[in-house]
Design brief:
This protein is mainly α and 224 residues long. The chain has a single domain, classed as Rhopdopsin 7-helix transmembrane proteins. It is 75% helix and 3% strand. It has a two-stranded antiparallel sheet. The chain is built from seven helices and two strands, in the order ααββααααα. Helix 2 runs antiparallel to helix 3 and helix 3 runs antiparallel to helix 4.
């Protein structure tokens, strides 16, 4: 994670027309996650509920890093849209749905009985579907309306992020807090590997695309 943050800092020294806030977001995501993983590595940020270990440090990580990822994706969709015309309401709705999803996941993990756990899990999945709806609906349409090449790039990034994000509730469902198909060690390993690709991997792709696009940035026009 720190290696990824350093890479983005190096790129920010030669931004190639990409706004500095894009690099700041990309750097903050892995730095914040690295702190959460350090806490888990030091055997902190966890508690035992109903005989299972809940790593609440993960949720502290996700409640900050995943909204930043969605903001990065949203800013990519609106890359050609002037700042004053960007939909703050859309970005707020995206982040709000994501925070609800993370909080529901935390309460599901902290639930002592299976009924409460399942109810919180279902609520979290519902919030996740709202996130996907905004990603593949309004945001994708903004990117497509702005420029065909940007639309294609956004679609690739959204697909990459969606596949990895689907892994999160899937791992949770088959882990000790869900069906118990995989053990705690395997779940913890997967919850380290998948975030690396969804955070550092996504930011590498995102910034690479933007650094290539920025010098050829066309004049923005409203789609009919």
């Amino acid at each position: 994670m720190i290696g990824g943050a350093l890479l983005f800092w190096v790129w920010s020294r030669n931004p190639k027309g990409v706004p500095q806030y894009e690099y700041s977001i990309a750097m903050l995501i892995p730095i914040w996650s690295a702190l959460a993983y350090m806490a888990m590595g030091l055997d902190q940020g966890k508690t035992e509920v109903a005989g299972q270990i809940t790593h609440y440090a993960r949720y502290i990580d996700w409640v900050v890093s995943t909204p930043l990822l969605l903001l990065a994706l949203g800013f990519t969709a609106m890359f050609y849209v002037p700042k004053q015309e960007r939909s703050i309401t859309l970005l707020f709705g995206l982040v709000a749905a994501d925070v609800v999803m993370i909080v529901c996941g935390l309460f599901a993990d902290l639930s002592e009985n299976s009924t409460a756990r399942l109810l919180w899990y279902i609520c979290g999945v519902g919030a996740f579907l709202c996130v996907l709806y905004l990603i593949w609906g309004s945001l994708r349409q903004i990117a497509l309306n702005s420029d065909a090449e940007l639309g294609a790039i956004y679609t690739k990034l959204a697909g990459f992020l969606t596949i990895l994000w689907i892994c999160y509730p899937t791992i949770w469902a088959v882990g000790p807090s869900g069906l118990g198909i995989i053990n705690q060690t395997t779940e913890t390993f997967l919850f380290v590997v998948v975030p690396f690709f969804s955070k550092v991997g996504f930011s590498i792709l995102d910034l690479n695309y933007l650094r290539d696009l920025a010098p050829r940035k066309p004049a923005y026009h409203h789609a009919a």
